[in-house]
Fold these 4 entries.
Entry 1:
Amino acid sequence: MSFDVGGRLKELRVAAGLSQRELAARSGVTHSLISLIEQNRNSPSVASLRKILDGIPMTMVNFFDEARTPKDKVFFEASDLLDLTSRLHQVNGGDSRGQMSFRQVGDAQAHNLQILHECYEPGADTGAAMLKHESHEGGVVLAGELEVTVGDQIKVLAPGDAYLFDSRIPHRFRNIGSARCIVVSACTPPYL
């Protein structure tokens, strides 16, 4: 069963009483981007969808989570992780190059801590528009290589390398290698 990103965005925008132009102005994106996403003619980047959802306001977890994870759950199997991003790529015809997936452990809002299992396919990029939010985040690369940009600092991280920074500093993640990159990260307070 595929997730209708465009339909869900339109449903939320209308429920918030916003026109496409009003949501675009609140989000700092173009009106045409909102229109293309709602028509499922454009698959938004993680950064673009996050900016748009800030205009509603709503988290990505609430955007995608059909059944909330119980707050008292302690242990999670791989199949229990909440997929936050792979649904964004269904519009692109199934080509995995450049795709990424972020899978969340449990209810991040209840614990004020977001733990993610991240996969970046070769060419994946969080976007030229750098991310910036009120959090702190860190992670460890488990496989592959990941180029991390934080402000004016850029470093390619290999397995075992890690990062930790104030997320209010503009940042970006890119897999510039030829193999899948896997990262486990944490962010507080939760961003996605």
Note: The domain at 5-58 is CATH 1.10.260.40 (434 Repressor (Amino-terminal Domain)).
Entry 2:
Amino acid sequence: MYKAIIRPILFWFDPEKVHHFTFSLIRTLSKLPGFKSLFKKMYLVEDKKLERELFGLTFKNPVGLAAGFDKDAKLFNELSNFGFGFIEIGTLTPKPQDGNPKKRLFRLKEDSAIINRMGFNNGGVEEAVERLKKNKGVLIGGNIGKNKVTPNEDAVKDYEICFNALFDYVDYFVVNVSSPNTPNLRALQDKEPLTELLKALQVLNFQKPKSKPILLKIAPDLTNEQLDDIIDIVKTTKIDGVIATNTTISREGLQSKNKSEIGGMSGKPLKSRSTEVIKYLYEKSNKAFPIIGVGGIHSAEDALEKIEAGADLVQLYTGFIYEGPKLITSINKALLQKS
């Protein structure tokens, strides 16, 4: 029904407007009697065999929603009814910011992809915290970044502000230094500044009564030498894992007419490179840390490929938009068949 009827209608309209409309629709439907139960009956797959234990957390199933979809933690309770095992909110910054000028979100229908140059648009971390206080048992990841106006030499302070504000309300953290849509942000992926940033967050982390997992989200555009640096950094800073990967600046092999739009590309064309990065990190590190695989998952087979390459969990974003919530169900059912 989604791909045959709903998606064609939604795809007639501006993608950013559709995103907000869809949020309003899901929120409204979830308040109506019976709809929450209906969503769960249609999409939720519950089985102990799907549970995953990672960095001290129990994930009900290994299929999560990637950051960027529910940036401001407005819909995590409702979205969990579609069967996600965890929801990652953000990217959040200390102060609210509008992000980049519109139009900034583009569908590449022929490629089953999306290009975005949103620019960390969000209402600020404190606003999100107020919503997270209403969490009804959803496992939440907090994806954090820096404000656009904050120079890189002061970036650590922004990440620390977000870390402290979110600490009591998320289950794990994700340090985002890999978005291509904030000027100079990816420079923080270089070994020295990244080590400094993660060490600073770990200092805060170990001052808490009980520390929380910190993961690093990396770009798919890193070279093998840079991936070797990432492995060293994880070991040095003792963070808990890596999310591979964020969006790409590559446009190789794209067919769509708007393929030259500036921004990060996600979707099917990213699948192979994301899996390559997962496999490289998994094998080169000798399975030293958990990996969450994201990028180009549009089918159960795509998810299984990521897991076989070394991912412990997977996340959806563009695949969720193109394939609908049935994708979550099909991945979990495929995992049960293999168990």
Note: The chain has twelve helices and 13 strands.
Entry 3:
Amino acid sequence: MTGQHDVVNRTTVVGVDGSASAMRALDWAADRVATRGGRLEILCVVDLAFGAALYGPRFDPVANASLILTRIEAAVRGRHPGLDLTTRWSDGRPAHELIRRSMDAALLVVGTDKTPGRAGPRIGTLPLTVAGKAGCPVAVIPDLGHTERHDVVVGIDASAEAMSALALGVREASWADDDVIALHAWSVPPVLRRDLTPDIHPDPRFEDAEQQIVLDAIHELGPTEAVRIVPEIVRLNAAHALVERASRARLLVVGSRGRGRIRSAMLGSVSHDVLTNITSPVIVVGDDYDFVTNEVDDSIEEDW
């Protein structure tokens, strides 16, 4: 089965604004489409009302956006000749327009300047917004530096969103010949550990149940053929564990409970904390992408 938006519709949308973070996102998206096929749509959003108020009638924001897109298209085509590529600009608020366009896309890609060492409410707010409300999975791309990266890390819990994340993670790993690290993290709330003596440890049955969460998810996914799934269970804050484990990963995939018309007012807390301390490319996916990996892969082979 497939989710509401068929992942083989092959359109990857990347938002650009001329910034360095947007260019990093564009490079990541273009490389991905060039390797795996599909279409790349480069979208530049221009808030005409804000531009007119800020600069007055002498400034032409449409011409500026068109110039940015022309330069970007030439650079991408120079790097990836023959890529199925379109460019467009749209009037409106960037987050709103990106979310609107995501409703018909397979993947939405945006850049961020967020890192564990850079705090501040204005850094990375757009990725947080679109990841919570988009109609497709959202890839958020930070500054990756020159770190050698391998494996796909997937955050696992007992939710439907985690199953979507695992299925998507396996599909991503199959294209890169990577392993999937299925990571489940659990921790003891402070209120339950303040008065405990050092000789008191968790009941082994509880730890076994936590481990079973990962094993059940892998079993429910079913055979993954060439992709190896490595279960990992750690006693640590979930977001911290995922950020740390993904610091050298090719990709981190997390599910978000903060998706949908009502729930999307807030991004899920773990996804939020991951994106504000991002150390690798991150894909955020909701529970409506409950596709079975093998069926999706078969569809991709037939369509591409």
Note: The chain has one domain: 7-303.
Entry 4:
Amino acid sequence: MTPTLVRQHLPSTGETSRRDLGARARDWSEIQERMLVPLYEAVYERLEVGTGTRLLGLGCGSGLALLMAASKGAAVVGVEPSSPERLALARERLQPEAWGTRARAGTRLVEGAPGGASDAGTAPYTLVTAFEPIGCLAGDSEGLGDLLAAATPLAERGASVVLVGWGPPERCATTSVLRVATKLAEPLRGTGSWRPALRDDLEEVAQRAGLRPDGSGRVSCPFGYADLDSALKGLLSTGLFDAAIEATDQAQVDKEVTEALHPYQRRDGTVWMPNVFRYLVADVP
């Protein structure tokens, strides 16, 4: 079975659907992805990412985390199993022409399973990252487990693996908005429906993958947007509302998410929601 992350649930057939997925990938790249920059920075600082790092990014999306690692001198390879639209944007960011003389040899982006990131001519990876936060969609930990099973054989013994999840619901203001997804998706009640993050989500994934936990941390990642429209586009780009859209319709989801955002809109029109994300560092035995 091809490893997948539970993320892109909207139908991908038809010209309208392709345009929708492309627009949503652009919203992710331009609005939402930057919300996790404090997390990327904290992880890279803790693990001293630099010129000696050979990084494999699972679920690399539109490539911002890879770009940040590459700017520190790391050799990076990204795998995106579920969104060719995001991967196309990552290629734009990481193509050699955008780097000039700073381009790093070995930078690659792979669509599909991590096995495509294997190269007999290169050394094993020293760091594997899975920055797509788990703990909010039913079934997302199983999808991450499949990715890890395919990726960890490509890493050297003792390599670090970083898993990321949402923090406690009471520490995440966005939780109250995400509950809209649960309410509207109630008729489906299956994989892809939002659920509150659990304390041991990351440890359970690491245990099933045969990894050895070696520390964890929490990072403040507030979600800040220029206005309600920007907040709506950013949140919908995550895929966390896909099941709600499938169970109802786009207009209903847009209306209820916008209403849920109103308490977080400030007088100047901006939207601000404090959140905490958690990461776990584990070692490949």
Note: The radius of gyration is 18 Å.
